[in-house]
Amino acid sequence: GEGVCYGSSDLDLAAGFEIDAGVLRERLEDLVDATLFSSPLRRCRKMAETLGTPHLDERLQELHFGKWELAPWDAIDRGEFEHWREDFVHRAPPEGESYASLSRRTLAFLTDAQAQEHRSIIVVTHAGVIRALLAHALGVPLERSFAFRLDFGSLCRLSVQDGTWQLHCMNC
């Protein structure tokens, strides 16, 4: 995946992911009664399956980069890339989706999950989706959401009460 543009491509997890999965399981021990959701893409689904039986939801997939999917970053037309980068929230890569669109589908998932009144949920998903959720919860514009550094296999804990969100930890 290094040096290659990928989002919605269904890549596998790196070998040895079971070690990360074990660490995550320990960190989530207090959420044994949580409902588990996952992106259907293998790199999330396989991790989620180490935690339980996930409900797969396509709205939790990473950004679709269109014709850039699986292309080396340095092979992407500079003009197209710069045009997209100038307003990556509202512009989509050729034949792809915009970050605003990803955010809308992510928030639709969240609205549905909240309506089901789960005691707690665990969501195994991708960095773009997590950034969109954090931006929503913390009232940060999507344009600024890449200020959130998200480490692979890390955990973000949020809670919401009466419509007010709290971030308990990020990259924990």
Task: Give a structural overview.
By secondary structure, the chain is α/β, with parallel strands linked by helices. The chain is built from five helices and five strands, in the order αβαβααβαββ. It has helices at residues 17-27, 42-49, 78-86, 99-115, 127-138, and strands at 35-38, 55-56, 121-124, 156-161, 164-170. 20% of the residues are buried.
What attributes does this structure have?
172 residues, two-stranded antiparallel sheet, 5 strands, globular
Topology:
Layout: H1 17-27, E1 35-38, H2 42-49, E2 55-56, H3 78-86, H4 99-115, E3 121-124, H5 127-138, E4 156-161, E5 164-170
Parallel strand pairs: 1-2, 1-3
Antiparallel strand pairs: 4-5
- Strand arrangement within the widest β-sheet reads 2-1-3
What pattern of helices and strands is seen along the backbone? HEHEHHEHEE
Number of strands: 5
Report Rg.
16 Å
Strand fraction equals 5-15%
The average pLDDT is 94
C-alpha end-to-end distance: 24 Å
| Residue windows where pLDDT falls under 50 for at least 5 positions | none
Q: Please give the largest β-sheet.
A: 3 strands, parallel
Q: If helices are DSSP runs of H or I spanning 4 or more residues, what is the number of helices?
A: 5
Oligomer: single chain
What is the general shape?
globular
